[in-house]
Design brief:
The complex is a heterodimer. Chain A is α/β, with parallel strands linked by helices. Chain A has 9 helices and 10 strands. In chain A, the strands form 2 sheets. In chain A, strands 6-7-8-3-9-10 form a 6-stranded mixed beta sheet, sandwiched between helices. A 4-stranded antiparallel beta sheet of chain A has the order 2-1-4-5. Chain A has one domain (6-243): P-loop containing nucleotide triphosphate hydrolases (Rossmann fold), CATH 3.40.50.300. Chain B has 2 domains: 2-38 and 173-365, no CATH class; 45-148, abc type-2 transporter like fold. Helices cover 66% and strands 8% of the residues of chain B. Chain B is built from 15 helices and 5 strands. Chain B has helices spanning 2-15, 17-37, 56-67, 80-88, 102-109, 123-140, 164-167, 174-205, 207-212, 218-248, 256-280, 284-301, 313-320, 323-337, 341-365; strands at 45-51, 71-77, 94-98, 112-118, 144-148. Chain B starts with a helix and ends in a 5-residue tail after the last helix. The chains are: A alpha/beta, B alpha/beta. Chain A binds chain B through residues 52-56, 73-74, 77-78, 80, 82, 84, 86-93, 97, 100-102, 104-107, and chain B through 1, 3-5, 7-8, 11-12, 15-16, 205-207, 209-216, 368-370. The structure holds adenosine-5'-diphosphate and magnesium ion (MG). Adenosine-5'-diphosphate (ADP) binds at residues 15, 18, 20, 38, 40-46, 244 of chain A. Residues 44-45, 85, 161 of chain A line the site of magnesium ion.
């Protein structure tokens, strides 16, 4: 069998006495769309930051794209894209300038960079807005742009932390279409969300409760296991016992 | 890699009206307002003369001093204790003692030493008084020297020396004296604040995560922050020099390349400090407060308002650790005195070492992985 693209083994992060992510173990296969669910404060962002090489694990191990996140974080970074929970393109730069900058720092150079920029703008139908400041775009457009920028350098994996927070269902649907097309190109998608309809779109879903991984399976089998009609019910059953939350 | 980082920073700077306004307006405002506000040209310094000689020569000197317009003769006596009493009662700022054989010494021996005691309560006024006296004495008679005495009853009186700088500003024009210092403060403030706030701002907005998750090497990232502000600092300095020339007619006496060379080196140090601060802070507010603290200490101890020589030893020690002190000194040296590379080399060495340490520290302390 092919080596999993993400392997986490008892991955743990402590902040002082507090265990934000508690010994989570799981694999993600290449090309998978992996949903990473959990209530607020469950430890999703903390886990994702460890997988991205942004935060060093307190204990346990994880390999991402073949590299150990603790010992080779910069190699991991070379192979992934990341869209953080906070919106993080430069608002005072234009759409085109953001694309150029992020493409540039991932090592894309001009003929290729220019082509990619044109393609991206065309795919998002943002040609008319290329010279607009990103800050002036509606949130939904910003998110689609941020996602497209995160995969501009054709990473093996893209990590998305609540990428569709605060937008309408129609825009979320458009966003997921982009996600599917990225997955179709072989990019593994690791995504956290609060929307259970989005969880249904994932190949597999994990649910974190208080830093631990409480469940991990396909949406269908999760529903069977918990005798639930929808992912909403599954989530509710599991998250009910959570101590944390805001 | 660096190209993209620089391109981005410059775009952001040129798009930021506040930064542009600060960079363009600050040199004007500061250079025009500060030297006026901090005009130390003190008149009416209370002078007491202890005349043990009572000769025509002594009379002539007294007259010359009072005619200068800077002094008010509040005592003219033959008794030193009486003069000290005036000093103690705050009725005299400066006591000048003419020895018994003042005239004879001048005529016969061709040299004479006077002693001068100052009231340390208002150190600035007294220090200036002393400086004026020294200058006036020089024009009066080159053969007269001043000897500083420390009255017993003023144990805390610092031994004031006339800072060498006064000699190169013979008209005691305080604006001329202040302008290079204000220019130094200007470059310091712009460089320090802009660099300290910049990385923190990226932290606050969250864009730093996007940089940290990319393969950008951290020294490139720091360099990408350093260089634009370094250019900006030079622009501000140039504007400041222009204002100094247009408004005050101050043209640097020393070499321009040397002046720019030093400022450039200095900017690396102060920007390094700003960047270092920003690697330790999470919010712009924190960065602002900490930078403000450093700026206050640096500027107050930098020798802009108070000559280093009249500071207590501990303050002087702190002042030497501040890059601003060296910049102010070197600016005055090059601009007013025309000092050469050889003269500023020690200061340049210290500032270069600071730049190296601060920037290395910033790069080491900046972590892409927490
Ligand atoms: N740097 C940190 N220091 C201390 N506690 C933290 C830190 N980061 C996150 N936490 C805590 O860890 C828990 C999990 O946070 P997070 O991973 O952001 O949750 P989620 O993304 O699932 O909402 C929260 O209780 C949060 O307060
Ligand atoms: Mg989160």
């Amino acid at each position: 069998m092919e080596q999993p693209i993400i392997q986490a083994d008892k991955l743990t992060k402590r902040f002082g006495d507090f265990v934000a992510t508690d010994a989570i173990t799981f694999d993600v296969a290449r090309g998978e769309i992996f949903g990473f669910l959990g209530a607020n404060g469950a430890g999703k962002t903390t886990a994702m930051r460890m997988l991205c090489g942004l935060s060093t694990p307190s204990s346990g191990r994880a390999h991402v794209a073949g590299f150990d996140v603790a010992t080779h974080p910069e190699d991991v970074k070379q192979n992934i894209g990341y869209m953080s929970q906070k919106f993080s393109l430069y608002e005072n730069l234009t759409v085109a300038e953001n694309i150029t900058f992020f493409g540039g720092i991932y090592g894309l150079r001009n003929p290729v960079l220019r082509d990619k920029r044109e393609q991206l703008l065309a795919r998002l139908e943002l040609e008319h807005a290329a010279d607009k400041r990103v800050g002036s775009l509606p949130l939904g457009w910003k998110q689609k742009l941020a996602f497209s920028v995160a995969i501009l350098h054709d990473p093996k994996i893209v990590f998305l932390d609540e990428p569709t927070g605060g937008v309408d269902p129609f825009t979320r649907r458009q966003f997921w279409n982009l996600l599917y097309s990225a997955a179709g190109q072989g990019i593994t998608v690791f995504v956290t969300t609060h929307y259970m309809d989005e969880a249904e779109y994932c190949h597999r879903v994990s649910i974190m409760v208080d830093g631990r991984m409480a469940a991990l399976d396909t949406p269908r089998r999760l529903k069977e296991t918990y005798g639930a009609a929808s992912m909403d019910d599954v989530f509710y059953t599991l998250a009910r016992g959570a101590q944390r939350g805001e | 890699m660096l190209y993209f980082l620089l391109q981005k920073e410059f775009r952001q700077i040129f798009r930021n009206r506040t930064i542009l306004a600060v960079v363009l307006v600050m040199p004007l405002i500061q250079l025009i307002v500060l030297p006026l506000a901090a005009d130390y040209e003190v008149k009416n310094i209370n002078l007491c003369i202890v005349d043990n000689d009572r000769s025509p020569e002594a009379q002539r000197l007294t007259q010359q001093l009072t005619a200068s317009g800077y002094f008010r003769l509040t005592g003219y006596t033959a008794s030193y204790p009486e003069a000290l009493a005036l000093l103690e009662a705050d009725r005299a700022d400066v006591v000048l003692t003419l020895p018994q054989d003042f005239e004879r010494g001048l005529m016969r021996d061709g040299g004479q030493t006077l002693s001068l005691a100052v009231n340390a309560i208002n150190g600035v006024k007294a220090g200036l008084g002393a400086a004026y006296i020294t200058t006036i004495l020089q024009t009066y008679n080159n053969a007269v020297r001043v000897q500083w005495v420390q009255p017993d009853r003023f144990p805390a009186t610092p031994v004031l020396k006339v800072a060498p700088v006064y000699w190169y500003n013979p008209f005691l024009n305080y604006r001329v004296f202040m302008v290079p210092g204000v220019l130094a403060v200007l470059v310091t403030m712009i460089g320090g604040f802009l660099s300290a706030l910049n990385i923190v701002q990226e932290k606050e907005v969250g864009t730093i995560e996007q940089i940290n998750v990319s393969p950008v090497r951290k020294h490139y990232f720091i360099l990408g922050k350093l260089l634009p502000f370094w250019v900006l600092g030079n622009v501000v300095f140039t504007l400041g020099l222009l204002v100094a020339r247009v408004v005050y007619g101050i043209v640097p006496m020393g070499s321009m390349p040397l002046l720019y060379g030093f400022v450039t080196l200095y900017l690396l140090a102060i920007l390094g400090l700003g960047l270092l601060i920003s690697t330790y802070c999470e919010t712009q507010q924190q960065a602002m407060l900490i930078t403000f603290f450093f700026m206050m200490v640096f500027i107050l101890l930098g020798g802009l308002f108070t000559p280093l020589d009249s500071m207590p030893a501990w303050a002087r020690a702190v002042a030497y650790c501040s890059p601003v002190t060296h910049l102010i000194a070197v600016m005055r040296m090059i601009i007013l005195k025309g000092s050469t590379l050889h003269d500023v080399l020690p200061a340049a060495g210290i500032v270069a070492a600071m730049a190296l340490v601060l920037n290395t520290w910033a790069i080491v302390h900046y972590r892409k992985t927490s």
